[in-house]
């Protein structure tokens, strides 16, 4: 997943960034609440982790600005306060969840998966698309009940397609999701990952549900006739 971390404490930011990277997430980092709002207008992050106490504006103020701009990216507030009023304030501002520091990395991972699933309309950790079952918790995939081996990049590609199934994803959006805008290879690498995914799914007896969309995009189609939407 592509996650925006908004944290102005360098030590905490580095610690959380390492936790997220170890879980296979791509992480963008900013210490500014105002910059976080600007970034969220440009990129379609899967989730935002926002510290409640920032130096320029508070996390709650940044969150209210996000919601006023109709940006629905799920937001998890990070707070060192155990004060109930602070948590209630964060939720009232539009937060999807909050985590109290210090936190266990397993809890943070579980909460991220939960808010992203809910935001995409999925109830449990397994997203099923035809014969494909993607488990967000174990970061694994099966086709017709048979496990398939995926490289980290192939998994991220299938995860993105699954979370946003029936939605057209441009190659640029896929590239940004996989590489976070840093040291990006040529865009044709997306075609390579899609080709490998199709082959592995087919080898396990699965039908080809990954469609090539005219204009330079791909879509994992859940069922015929689903409404197509172009992802920004």
TrEMBL record:
InterPro entries for this protein: CheY-like_superfamily, OmpR/PhoB-type_DNA-bd, Sig_transdc_resp-reg_receiver, WalR-like, WH-like_DNA-bd_sf
Positions of the DNA-binding region: 124-222
Residue span, OmpR/PhoB-type domain: 124-222
One Gene Ontology biological process: regulation of DNA-templated transcription
Residue stretches making up the Response regulatory domain: 2-116
Molecular function in Gene Ontology: phosphorelay response regulator activity; transcription cis-regulatory region binding
Keywords per UniProt: DNA-binding, Phosphoprotein, Transcription, Transcription regulation, Two-component regulatory system
Organism of origin: Phenylobacterium kunshanense
Lineage of producing organism: Bacteria, Pseudomonadati, Pseudomonadota, Alphaproteobacteria, Caulobacterales
PROSITE patterns in the cross-refs: OMPR_PHOB, RESPONSE_REGULATORY
Pfam family, one: Trans_reg_C
Any one GO CC term of the record: protein-DNA complex
Residues modified as 4-aspartylphosphate: 51
UniProt keyword Hydrolase present: no
Protein name per UniProt: DNA-binding response regulator
């Amino acid at each position: 997943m592509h996650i925006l971390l908004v944290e102005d404490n360098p030590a905490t930011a580095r610690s959380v960034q390492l936790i997220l990277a170890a879980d296979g997430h791509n992480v963008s980092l900013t210490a500014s609440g105002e910059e976080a709002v600007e970034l969220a207008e440009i990129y379609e992050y899967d989730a935002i982790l926002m510290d409640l106490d920032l130096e320029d504006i508070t996390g709650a103020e940044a969150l209210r600005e996000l919601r006023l701009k109709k940006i629905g990216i799920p937001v998890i507030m990070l707070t060192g306060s155990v004060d109930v009023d602070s948590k209630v304030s964060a939720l009232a501002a539009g937060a999807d969840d909050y985590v109290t520091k210090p936190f266990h990395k397993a809890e943070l991972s579980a909460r991220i998966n939960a808010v992203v699933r809910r935001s995409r309309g999925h109830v449990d950790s397994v997203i099923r698309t035809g014969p494909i079952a993607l488990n967000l918790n174990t970061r694994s995939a099966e086709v017709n009940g048979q496990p398939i081996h995926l490289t980290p990049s192939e998994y991220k590609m299938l995860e993105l397609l699954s979370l946003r199934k029936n939605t057209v994803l441009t190659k640029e959006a896929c590239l940004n999701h996989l590489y976070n805008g840093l040291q990006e290879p040529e865009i044709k690498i997306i075609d390579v990952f899609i080709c490998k995914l199709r082959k592995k799914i087919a080898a396990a007896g699965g039908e080809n549900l990954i469609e090539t969309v005219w204009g330079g995009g791909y879509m994992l189609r859940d069922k015929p006739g689903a409404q197509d939407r172009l992802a920004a």
